[in-house]
Specification:
Number of strands: 0
Largest sheet: none
Helix content: over 70%
Distance between the termini: 33 Å
Oligomer: single chain
Number of helices: 3
Shape: rod-shaped
C-alpha cells in the first residue's frame, strides 16, 4: 500500500520535474507516456515481488515452530 501511495505522489512530481530536465533528455520526449507507464509498471512489479516472496516463504513453515524461541 505504501508503494502505491509513493507512485501516486511520485508520478505527478516526476511529470513536473520533466520541465527542469528537458534539456538533458536526448531522443526522448519529456512527456513520453510509455516511459512513465513502463516505470510505474516496473515499480509495481518490484513492490509485488518484495511483498509476495516473503509472505509465500512464511506460509511454508508451521505456526507453532515460528513461535518457539531457540
Amino acid at each position: 500500500m505504501l508503494g502505491l501511495i509513493g507512485i501516486a505522489i511520485g508520478l505527478p512530481l516526476a511529470l513536473a520535474a520533466t520541465r527542469l530536465f528537458s534539456a538533458l533528455l536526448f531522443g526522448v520526449n519529456p512527456w513520453d507516456i510509455p516511459t512513465f507507464l513502463g516505470a510505474a509498471i516496473l515499480l509495481t512489479a518490484s513492490l509485488f515481488t518484495a511483498g509476495f516472496v516473503p509472505a509465500w516463504r512464511a506460509t511454508s513453515i508451521e505456526p507453532a515452530s515460528a513461535l518457539r524461541v531457540g
